Amino acid sequence: xxxxxxxxxxxxxxxxxxxxxxxxxxxxxxxxxxxxxxxxxxxxxxxxxxxxxxxxxxxxxxxxxxxxxxxxxxxxxxxxxxxxxxxxxxxxxxxxxxxxxxxxxxxxxxxxxxxxxxxxxxxxxxxxxxxxxxxxxxxxxxxxxxxxxxxxxxxxxxxxxxxxxxxxxxxxxxxxxxxxxxxxxxxxxxxxxxxxxxxxxxxxxxxxxxxxxxxxxxxxxxxxxxxxxxxxxxxxxxxxxxxxxxxxxxxxx
Length: 253
Description:
Layout: E1 2-4, H1 5-12, H2 16-24, E2 32-33, E3 39-42, H3 43-57, H4 62-69, H5 76-109, H6 116-120, H7 128-139, H8 143-153, H9 157-179, H10 187-203, H11 209-221, H12 223-232, H13 236-252
Antiparallel strand pairs: 1-3, 2-3
């Protein structure tokens, strides 16, 4: 059996453009061509594509994926074992984060203040008091901070569920964008960066492009924020930071 590029794109949930790119860089070269020169993919090609998408989902750069798959000494079963271990670790991290968000929503609904440890346990072993102090020092005297405090104080459980659902949907789409190899300076990434800014404007405070740039830098420099975004997809924090910078530049230049 062999398959046309459109069929393979449909099977794998990627774009034809992505498959063309993989072919152009030698990562996934189809085994055959039709008489008209069209790409035709074999079952072995589909196996390789599956491996590529596994590694891309885990945040591996294309160059590293190629090196891993083209290693003559590599055992295909070892690839699967490694991917399973990495995916299991990621699932556990996301499960903990989901539980922490739900805990925070329930606490706010019940009118109970979370302890600093409860607020930031999802971000790892960093000092939560230092994190809270940093937020206060950076924004405590600003209109944006006051606006955020005022808005969130009135939110219901349903509001927080909607915020969480919007953020989760955005995270899935941004992860898919990265899996497709889209650069942070591309139109797709800048569009999602703008959506990220608008989400803040809608629910928390008026987030200017300058503030958004500062947030982007913090997502990378602060390990707690970096852990949060990289749990959605490894490397997402830096990718988003670059997309935020590019998006701000196109709107303010």
